[in-house]
Each structure stands twice: as structure tokens, then as C-alpha cells.
TrEMBL record:
Source taxon at top rank: Bacteria
Organism: Streptomyces thermodiastaticus
Name of the protein in its database record: 3-oxoacid CoA-transferase subunit A
NCBIfam families on file: pcaI_scoA_fam
Keyword Transferase: yes
InterPro entries, per database record: 3-oxoacid_CoA-transf_A, CoA_trans_fam_I, NagB/RpiA_transferase-like
A GO term, aspect molecular function: succinyl-CoA:3-oxo-acid CoA-transferase activity
The entry's keywords: Transferase
Alphabetical list of Pfam families matching this protein: CoA_trans
EC number, as in UniProt: 2.8.3.5
Length: 260
């Protein structure tokens, strides 16, 4: 039951070329940066990534993206990642963009053993009808477009059929975890991390604080260890390395003024 692996490098040692990965995080929050860096240092490429976005600034999945290691992205947000947009429009990267809630449910469904489900999100759009550009040809044309999906009416309302997602591996980051793989996520890092962890056939978690089994109240567990195969304890320096994507501060009041 001891799932602790000594290093991140050992935890990702069997991730092969062309593997599919579900990766937790949103922006800079809850991103498994240490595991991603270890994967980058392994040098594997042709990866298929399922994640809300593909890294921000020069961290997270942006490290693999900039190195040309990612072949396909399934996500819901390109954001301000200019390299992501450049590779997509240049035809270097295949991208399946889907509604954010649908992405979350596809990951959860895959982890729960549900092959497909119906949702109203996307009905009447190219999400359901097909034709979304998955890959461009580099000259502004579409080289590969999304196929149409099954649409069915229930009680007079139309729903589109979406498939659950399963990946070869999942990489996640937790605030706390025990040796059995039970995980706790802090605040907004409890975004896509539990869902990505459920979707992976082999799930690897980097944890900021490693505790012994029983130290986490069962009612406080966000993800049971049944979904986690490997745990990597971060060093204090790695755990504290958290960047801010956009810093917003309030301008100081002018000297002598009174706030009312």
C-alpha cells in the first residue's frame, strides 16, 4: 500500500513516446510542475494531453509545448498562451476545444467507468454538428475538422452525446497526501486535479506535504487513494514555488486623505 516513489524522475520513468496524459490545474493553480519538468527531462514526445489549458507563461505544460513534445491537446481554454495559439494556427498541433463543463464531466465519467453521457451544452453549434478545426493546414485552411456527434431528444429537449475520457497516465498536484494515495487539494487547486486523477489509468501525484496513513480525517479526503498509483513528496522549496499569473493590487491612498 506504500505508493511513495523517491523522485519525480522515477515516477514518470515508464511514460512512453505518444502517451496520453490527463493533467490537473488551471492557469498556475494546482499545476504538477515538478512532474511535468521530470517528463520534459526524459525527452519523450508525441504526447496527447487532456487539460483545461496548456500552460501559462513559461510554466506547466508550456514547458513541453515549447519543446514540441505535445502532438494533441484536448482542452477548453487557449488563453494568453501565444505559443499554443501559434502552433495551433500553423498546423503543428491538433486541438480539440470543448466546453469547460463538458471537459470536466468527460474526465469524471471516464474515471467512474461511464463510457458516454448526454449534455445540452453545445447543441446547435459546431460542438455537436461538427466542423470545428482540429488541425489547420498552415495556410489558413482546415486540414482536420471535428466529426458530428449524436444528438437525441429527451422530454422535448435536445442533448449531445459526449464520450468519457480515459488516459494512459494522469499528473496531479495536491496540498497533502498520505502513503496510501489519499489526497487533499487546497482551495482553487481543487479544480481539474481530482477529475484528471480519476481519468488516468496510472495516476501520479506530487504532494506538498506527505503524511502517514490515518493523519487525514476520512471526511477531509478529496480523492481516495484507489485512484492514485504513485505519490511523490515535494521538497519544501518545490512546495513553496508558486507563481502569480496576474498580480492585482490597489493603488495606495494619497497622503492625508481619509477613506470613507
Amino acid at each position: 500500500m506504500n505508493k511513495v516513489v523517491p523522485t519525480a524522475a522515477e515516477a514518470v520513468v515508464d511514460v512512453p513516446e505518444g502517451a496520453t496524459l490527463a493533467v490537473g490545474g488551471f492557469g498556475l493553480s494546482g499545476v504538477p510542475n515538478v512532474l511535468i519538468q521530470a517528463l520534459y527531462e526524459r525527452g519523450v514526445g508525441g504526447l496527447g494531453v487532456v487539460s483545461n489549458n496548456c500552460g501559462a507563461m513559461d510554466s506547466g505544460l508550456a514547458v513541453l509545448l515549447a519543446a514540441g513534445r505535445i502532438a494533441r491537446v484536448t482542452g477548453s481554454y487557449i488563453g494568453a498562451n501565444k505559443e499554443f495559439a501559434r502552433q495551433y494556427l500553423a498546423g503543428e498541433l491538433e486541438v480539440e476545444l470543448i466546453p469547460q463543463g463538458t471537459l470536466a464531466e468527460r474526465l469524471r465519467a471516464g474515471g467512474a467507468g461511464i463510457p458516454a453521457f448526454y449534455t445540452p451544452a453545445g447543441v446547435g453549434t459546431q460542438v455537436a454538428d461538427g466542423g470545428l478545426p482540429w488541425r489547420y493546414d498552415g495556410d489558413g485552411g482546415v486540414a482536420l475538422a471535428s466529426p458530428p456527434k449524436e444528438v437525441r431528444a429527451f422530454d422535448g429537449t435536445e442533448y449531445v452525446l459526449e464520450r468519457g475520457i480515459r488516459t494512459d497516465f494522469a499528473l496531479v498536484r495536491a496540498a497533502k497526501g498520505d502513503r496510501h494515495g489519499n489526497l487533499v487539494f487546497a482551495k482553487s487547486s481543487r479544480n481539474f486535479n481530482p477529475l484528471a486523477a480519476m481519468a488516468g489509468r496510472v495516476t501520479i501525484a506530487e504532494v506538498e506535504e506527505l503524511v502517514e496513513p490515518g493523519a487525514i480525517d476520512p471526511d477531509a479526503v478529496h480523492l481516495p487513494g484507489i485512484f492514485v498509483q504513485r505519490v511523490v513528496a515535494l521538497t519544501p522549496e518545490q512546495a513553496a514555488d508558486k507563481r502569480i499569473e496576474r498580480r492585482t493590487v490597489t493603488a495606495p491612498a494619497a497622503r492625508g486623505t481619509v477613506n470613507g
